[in-house]
Design goal:
Number of strands: 6
CATH class: Alpha Beta
CATH architecture: 4-Layer Sandwich
Order of helices and strands: HEHEEEEHE
CATH superfamily: S-adenosylmethionine decarboxylase
Radius of gyration: 21 Å
Number of domains: 1
Distance between the termini: 37 Å
CATH topology: S-adenosylmethionine decarboxylase
Strand order of the largest sheet: 2-3-4-5-1-6
Structural class: alpha+beta
Length: 146
């Protein structure tokens, strides 16, 4: 490779870096919340409905359809017994995407994903979520999706 070719290669690499470093407007925002040491009495449909109501109002999201996946109404022999599956899961669709929750009784843990193409205050969402479930421990990740 001669000097001219090396220079052209460096220029092309710099152009690629410049394109990658330009501020890209996020498509959406995702908050991942892992809660431990939670109050399992909040792991029911009525409580989760209340949580969705309070959260959506606080972060200014418009609620749409909501679905549950749990053992309500199942015969005893069909109910989940594994720590990783025994509990309640729900999806609250919002106008700008969704809020997904997995509340696991035997682990006293709650896992929440809030995704929206509309910006929201992740600190408010974290505070409400931690308080609602009475968590002793909380870990979060906030991601700008591009």
């Amino acid at each position: 490779m001669n000097i001219l070719q090396m220079t052209e290669k460096r220029v092309e690499l710099q152009r690629k870096r410049n394109r990658m470093n330009k501020k890209i407007k996020p498509y959406g925002f995702e908050l991942i919340i892992d809660l431990h040491g939670c109050d399992v009495s909040t792991f029911n449909r009525e409580s989760l409905d209340g949580y969705f109501e309070k959260l959506c109002k606080a972060i200014d999201m418009q609620k749409c359809e909501r679905y549950f996946f749990d053992d309500v109404g199942l015969p005893e022999e069909e109910k989940q017994t594994s720590p990783h599956t025994k509990g309640s899961s729900a999806v609250q669709f919002i106008l700008t995407s969704s809020i997904v929750i997995h509340a696991l009784e035997l682990l006293e843990a709650v896992y929440v994903n809030i995704f929206s193409c509309k910006e929201f205050d992740e600190k408010v969402a974290e505070k409400i979520t931690k308080g609602w479930f009475g968590a002793n421990g909380c870990r979060t990740h906030f991601i700008e999706r591009i």
